[in-house]
Amino acid sequence: MTLSLYNTLTRKKEPFSPIDPADVRMYVCGPTVYDRPHLGNARSVVVYDVLYRLLKHLYPNVTYVRNITDVDDKINAAAKANGEPISALTNRVEGWFHEDMAALNCLLPTKEPHATAHIAQMISIIEKLIKNNNAYVAQGHVLFAVDSYKDYGKLSGRKLEDLIAGSRVDVESYKKHPGDFVLWKPADAGDDASSVFDSPWGKGRPGWHIECSAMSSTYLTDHFDIHGGGADLMFPHHENEIAQSCCATPGSKFANVWVHNGFLTINGEKMSKSLGNFTTVKDLLDKGVKGEVIRYAMLSTKYNEPLDWNEKLLEDSKKALDYCYRLLSKVDLMRGKQINESLMQSDVQCLACLENDINVPQLFGSLNVIISNITFRNIELDHAGFLLHKYMNLVGLLNLTPNQWFKGEGDDSAIQAQINARIEAKKAKNWAEADRIRKSLADQGILLEDKPDGTTDWRRA
Ligand code: AMP
Ligand code: ZN
Predict the structure, then answer these.
(1) CATH, residue 196
(2) Distance CA 335, CA 386 (A)
(3) pTM tops 0.85, yes or no
(4) Dist CA 101 CA 165 (whole Å)
(5) Same domain, 74 and 118
(6) What is the DSSP pairing of strand 135-138 with strand 141-144?
(7) Co-location of 362 and 232 in the same domain
(8) What distances in angstroms separate CA 332 from CA 373, 383, 384, 389, 395, one per listed residue?
(9) Which residue has a Cα nearest atom 22 of ligand 1?
C-alpha cells in the first residue's frame, strides 16, 4: 500500500506522489505568538507532527517548514494591553509554545522561520503582484484584486459573488472589490517600532496571508508537496496564499495536496480564544495530566473530524496508556523483534492504517485486536508488545519505559527510603513495621511488589 491523503483541493482521497521522493516538502501554518497555546492550537500541531513522523518513516528526507507569525494586529493589541514591547511578548509566547508542544512530544520542524525575518521576500512578491496587475495601491495599502485570479475560491469552493454577501471581510471604501485583501498596510500612529517596516509604499506591516507565500517559497520553492493547517484557515487564509503565490509566479502550482485538521470542540463548539471556552495545554499539565495522555486523547479521533474534548476522554486515554505500559513491562522487545509469519501480516496492517489518510484511531483498533488475540505465552506476548511499541512510537506515543511511566520522573528517593526501611524491618522479622510501611505507602498511592530475589518493585496506583 502507498500513502493516501485526503486533498481538500480535489475533495478526494488520493495516492500521495511526491514531486521529489528524495525530499518530501511540507509547509504548515504555525502559531501567532500573542498568547499561550490552547488545546485547539495544539491539535493542529500534533496532527502534523504525526504526518511528519509518518513521512519520515516512508521517505529518506522530509523538509517540514512551520512558520512563526510574529507580526500581526492581535500581537500589537496584546502588547499594548500588557504595556510591554512587542518583542518581549513574542519571545515569551514563542518559548511557551515550544515548551508546551515539547510536553506533547511534538518534534521541531526542519525550519521554523519568523515572519519578521522575511519582510524583503514579502515585498518582492507584492511588487510582482502589482507588476502583473493582480494588486493595486490605495490609501497607503496594497490590496490583492481577487477578480484578477480566475481560480479564486477553488480551494474552499466559494464563488466571488457569495464572498460579497457572506464573508466577514471588512468592506473599506478603498477596496475595488469587497473580497480584496490586504498585502501591505500603513503603520498606525504610536505603533511599536518593531512592528513597523520600510517599504516602497511607506512605513507599515505586511498582511497575514503574504507571509506564508513568502516563507514557503523561500524554503520549499514555488511548488511543494503538502500544505497543512486548521480547517478555519481554508478560507480566507489558504485561498489567499494560493492566489498570491500562483499570480506572483504564473504557471506555478504552489502546493499539490492541501490537508486540513478538524476542530477541537467543547460541547460541540470550536475551542477558541474569542469564545473564551479554551483550556491551555499548560493548564492541564499543571493539574498533573501527562503530556502523553493529552497527545493520546488528541489522536483518538481521526485528524480531519471534530474532536469533542471532555474529562472522560482524558480518563479513557490515561487508562489506555496504563494498559499499554503494563503490557510493555512484561515484554522483551528484543525477543519480539523476530516477528513470526502471522504477525508480519499484522505489521503490514498497522502501517496500512496510517497510510490510509493517517487513520490513527484505526491503528489503535488494530493494535487492540493484536493484543487481545495473544495467548499469554511469553513469545507471542513479546511479538505483540514489539508491534505495539513500534507503531505507538511511530505516532509519538509510548516513549517512556514502564518504570518511568508508573513512577513518574520526579524525585522518588523518599519512596525508595521507605522501601529500604521495610526491607530492613522484614530482615529483623518486625512484620508489624513492614506492614505499617506497606500500608502507609499504599495510602500515598504507591503499590509494592515483592520479587523472589528479595528486592521490592513499586508503581503508582
Ligand atoms: P492561531 O494561533 O489562532 O492562528 O491558530 C493556530 C493554529 O491552530 C491554526 O492552524 C488554527 O487552524 C488552529 N486552531 C485554532 N483553534 C482550533 C481548534 N479549536 N481546533 C483545531 N485547530 C485549531
Ligand atoms: Zn499560512
Answers:
(1) 3.40.50.620
(2) 8
(3) yes
(4) 39
(5) yes
(6) antiparallel
(7) no
(8) 18, 9, 10, 11, 21
(9) 40
Ligand 1: residues within 6 Å at CB? 29, 31-32, 40-41, 43-44, 229-230, 232-233, 261, 263-264, 270-272
Q: Could you list the residue range(s) of the whole structural domain that residue 415 is in?
A: 410-460
Centre of ligand 1 to C-alpha 91, Å, is: 20
Q: How many domains does the chain have?
A: 3
130 and 33, same structural domain?
yes
Of the candidates 261, 294, 320, which is a domain's last residue? 261
Same domain, 149 and 119: yes
CA distance linking residue 454 with residue 267, whole number of Å: 52
Which residue, judged by its Cα, is nearest atom 21 of ligand 1? Answer: 263
> pLDDT (tens digit, 0 to 9) for every residue of the chain, 461 residues total?
699 999 999 999 999 999 999 999 999 999 999 999 999 999 999 999 999 999 999 999 999 999 999 999 999 999 999 999 999 999 999 999 999 999 999 999 999 999 999 999 999 999 999 999 999 999 999 999 999 999 999 999 998 877 765 445 556 888 999 999 999 999 988 888 889 999 999 999 999 999 999 999 999 999 999 999 999 999 999 999 999 999 999 999 999 999 999 999 999 999 999 999 999 999 999 999 999 999 999 999 999 999 999 999 999 999 999 999 999 999 988 878 777 777 788 899 999 999 999 999 999 999 998 888 876 555 588 889 999 999 999 999 999 999 889 876 556 777 887 888 898 888 888 898 889 889 988 888 888 988 887 888 888 77
Point out which residues pair with 182 in neighbouring strands. Answer: 143
For residue 265, the ligand 1 atom closest to its alpha carbon is 19
> CA-to-CA distance for 209 and 361, rounded, in angstroms?
33
Closest ligand 1 atom to Cα of 229: 10
